[in-house]
Structure formats: C-alpha cells, structure tokens
Amino acid sequence: MCQYCRALHFLEEKLSHSSNSILMFSGCCAEGKVELLLFPDPPEQLWHLFTSESRESTHFRQRIRSYNNVLSLTSLGTTETPYQQNDGGVYSFCIKGALYHNHGPLLLEDGERPKFAQIYVHDSQDLDAQVSHRMNIFQDNALDQTILSSLT
C-alpha cells in the first residue's frame, strides 16, 4: 500500500530505491506529489443494488449488462471472434478489427420507438416514458421496472 495515498500495488511495482521496510511507489501519486481525490460515495440506492443480498439487488447484478445497455446513449459495434470454450476460465470478449460506437439519428423515423440517445432527447422530462421505452427493448421482461425507474 502506498504510504501517501493508500493505493494498492503489487510488490514488483515498488521503486528501486525503496527499502523492504518502507515500500515506495510512484505509479499512483508520485510519492505524495499529486493529491488524488477520493471518489464520492455513490447514491444510496445504487450502493444498495451493488452490495445488498436482497432479491432486487441479486436480480440487478445478474442482469447488470442489460441495465447498462438500456441506459446507454450508443450501441457497441465490432466484429467479434467466435467464442471458444477454454478450460473453465472466465469468458473473454475477443474483438477482431476495430471497436466502435453506433449512434443513430436523433430524429425518429415515422412509427419508430426511440432508443439510446433518442430516449434522452425525445422524452427528456417524462421519466415514465423513458422507462417504458427501455422496458420494451427486452421483450422477455428481463428487467425490473422498479429498478429501472430508480436508475433512470
């Protein structure tokens, strides 16, 4: 742990002039020369979703990518390489070529429901309408409307 900012490091990251009893690092705060501000505490509702063992918190963590997707301004685009099963390790998202963000027009086509940034623009004051549009993105009811409302 850095003695100045308390950042955690690997032992191999210590500076060559540090001793075994006083470990010094420069990759975080340059030995106290840079003051790193702490992140503010997240809103209480969001902290609850990340840390609680309640039904809604468990649901949120299991579907966190879906909640992130419906609240994003753009969609992700890439040419993904086919997933190959490894020896039981963690799934790796492999990309072939470039990674890019798709964003469509802010104006809606006739009869089209808003999505991504369009939701923020067309229904900027109507949070219930935003939630309704986002709930319709996943037809299998994968999202909890109460959780999505609080995140919105």
UniProtKB/TrEMBL annotation:
Against PANTHER family, the record matches this protein to:
ATP-DEPENDENT DNA HELICASE (PTHR45786:SF74), DNA BINDING PROTEIN-LIKE (PTHR45786)
Name of the protein in its database record:
Helitron helicase-like domain-containing protein
Q: What is the lineage of its organism?
A: Eukaryota, Fungi, Dikarya, Ascomycota, Pezizomycotina
